[in-house]
Structures are given as structure tokens and as C-alpha cells.
Amino acid sequence: MITVPAGAPYAKLMGLGVYRPSRIVPNSEIVGAIDSSDEWIQQRSGIRQRRWATEDETLQMMTTEASRRALEDAGVDAAQIDCVIVATVSHMMQTPAVATLVAHDLGTEQAAAFDVSAACAGFCHAVAMANDMVRSGSARHVLAIGAERLSEITDPTDRGSAFIFADGAGAVVVGPSETPGIGPVVWGSDGAQYDLIRSREDWRDVIASDEPRMPHLVMQGNAVFRWASFAMAKVAQQALDLAGVSAEDLDVFVPHQANNRITDAMARSMKLPAKVRIARDIADQGNTSAASIPLALERMVAEGEASSGDLALFVAFGAGLAYAAQVVVVP
Ligand SMILES: CC(C)(COP(=O)(O)OP(=O)(O)OC[C@H]1O[C@@H](n2cnc3c(N)ncnc32)[C@H](O)[C@@H]1OP(=O)(O)O)[C@@H](O)C(=O)NCCC(=O)NCCS
Question: pLDDT tens digits for the chain (331 residues)?
Fold first, then answer.
């Protein structure tokens, strides 16, 4: 008969770490190429400035640095990590996964390591998997990371997306707990809307082209906006219901930082009480896809808007259209 290991009763977020690239790019620097204005961008998206990585700030470097900070915050040694999950859509090598490089750089002892491609919902997918691993006994400590270098795959002349996407990394250590620290995930996808956010072309088209160029992201912004504003409030409510809590119980709401107006629409639909603090990291960080939720949570903690033990709701959505939501206790 097969022996099955016993997992921990529950899992929790034990520590949080982020890496914000050093280069700050204000709207004024990008508006010329897209015939736009600082006022339009702020009004439509809430973005004042974003951070773009310098040459030295590679995806691997940012991911490793955020992970080191998360390990330090958690008081966990790299050797204790059994699995490294990196959610990203901007690793430029088809294989192997950037997670294997990060696991090595950190000094884990041959931790399992793989990447997750669920776009802006990737971090919440990674947290959900880490939660299940710790509870099933297949890992005791897991690094769940969202990391992106989207500036490399953003077309600076595309009016619909050039002002949105940005770079950064955020990591959490997920480990065993005596009390529930991560609620059940609500997740899904809608491949019928695959075209709404995607790479402009695949690598075969790039190679066949007379003028090969990086396959940049393209987006039907308005359709994404309408979908996210309506559908995601329901997903958020399901995550609350499954966790057995109500909006009244929440301390902080940390949605994917896609657009402040989507955040506002979700908060209205969910009838979030005014006392619930809402993440607004997008204003200074832009949309960092898989990295946006840990980055946004870190800013709230750093600015005293969120504290250890607070109840937080994560909701993430993006290309795929993939989405995921869960309630967590802030580490
Ligand atoms: C991209 C986004 C900010 C655009 O805002 P919008 O209100 O939907 O804008 P529209 O595309 O409907 O365009 C409205 C007008 O602004 C103009 N416009 C579009 N891009 C512009 C820009 N960068 N600067 C100035 N004007 C612009 C359009 O030409 C249009 O003008 P018209 O009314 O004269 O035709 C918004 O759709 C959005 O944020 N969508 C969600 C994107 C997202 O979250 N993506 C990531 C998910 S992970």
C-alpha cells in the first residue's frame, strides 16, 4: 500500500519581500510616443509613474532579491524551502524555468522549482498551490513569487498599453500553521476571451517576419475593463463566502493593480465598508501583472495601512482570461 505523508493542519503567509526597480518613469517621459497626456493617463488609469528595470535588474535578479527579503521577513532559511514557484509571463527563455535559477541563487537544497503562466492572476495561483502543498505534506515551506519585466515586452508606441505595464517582483513564504492563514481559492479561466490580452504574435511569426521584433503585449483595454469590473466582484464575493467571512470582516482589499477605476468598480459592487483600506500601488508602480499584489500589499504594510494579523482579500485577473481570489491573513 502507498504511504501518504501527513501535511500541516493549515498554512499561512510567513513573510513578504519585494523588489522595486530603481528607475522611476513619470508619465511625462512616455506620453510623446503615444500622443497622450499625464492628465489623461492619471484620469483613466490612476497611474502617475511606473518603475522600469535597468539592464542589471534582470527578472532573475529581481525575483531572487524579493525572495531573499521574504525569507528574512519569515525567519526561514533558504535550505528549508522545498519548492519555488515563480508566476511570470516575462521570462525570455522558453525553458528551463526562471524558478530553477532563483532556487539555485538562493541556496535552496535542490528545491522543486517551476514557473506558472497565469498572467496577472499568477501570484494568487502560486499562493493557492503553495497552500495545498503545505497542507498535503508535499512541501513544508514554499516560496510563491510574482515577478515581471514587462517593459521588455511593451510596445512604447502602443497607445492602449504603453502607459500601463511595468516591472517588479514580490514574494511570500508559505509554511505550516496551527490556524487557517489562507482561505480557499476561487479560480478559473475563459479561453473564449483569449484574444483580449495576449502577445501580438508567436515566435514562428517573429522569425518569418522581414523585420523581427519582440512579441509585445496587446490588449483590448475597454473589453478587459468591462469584464474585470463586473465579473471579478462576483469572484471576490465567492472567495469571501468560501472563507466564511464577510466584507465587514476585512481589514484590507488588495486587488490586482490593473486600473484604479476597476478597483473602484469592484469595491462598489462588493459594497466594501469604508473602513476597509484599499491598495493603490498602481499610482507609483504601474501594472506589474503577477507581481502587483505582493508589491501592493508591501506598500500598505510599509505605510502602516496593513499590519500583521489583518484579514486581506486578494483578487487577480488578466490574460487567459485567468483569474483567482482568496482571503489571507497578512504576515
Ligand atoms: C486602457 C484603458 C485605460 C483605456 O481607457 P478607456 O476608457 O477604456 O479608453 P478607450 O479605449 O475606450 O478610449 C477612449 C478614448 O481615449 C482615446 N485614447 C486611447 N488611448 C489613449 C491614450 N493613451 N492617451 C490618450 N487618449 C487615448 C481613444 O482614442 C478614445 O478616444 P475617442 O473617444 O475620441 O474615440 C482602460 O480600458 C483599461 O484600463 N482597461 C483595462 C486594462 C487592464 O486592466 N489591463 C490589464 C489587465 S491585467
Answer: 998 889 999 999 999 999 999 999 999 999 999 999 999 999 999 999 999 999 999 999 999 999 999 999 999 999 999 999 999 999 999 999 999 999 999 999 899 999 999 999 999 999 999 999 999 999 999 999 999 999 999 999 999 999 999 999 999 999 999 999 999 999 999 999 999 999 999 999 999 999 888 899 999 999 999 999 889 999 999 999 999 999 999 999 999 999 999 999 999 999 999 999 999 999 999 999 999 999 999 999 999 999 999 999 999 999 999 999 999 999 9
CA distances (Å), 63 to each of 34, 154, 182, 251, in order?
A: 30, 20, 22, 28
Catalytic choice (120, 131, 141, 259): 120
Name the maximum alpha-carbon separation found in the chain: 67
Domains and CATH numbers, the chain: 10-177 (3.40.47.10), 186-329 (3.40.47.10)
Report which protein residue has its CA nearest ligand 1's atom 16. 40
Is 83 among the catalytic positions? no
The span from the first CA to the last CA of the chain, in angstroms, equals: 39
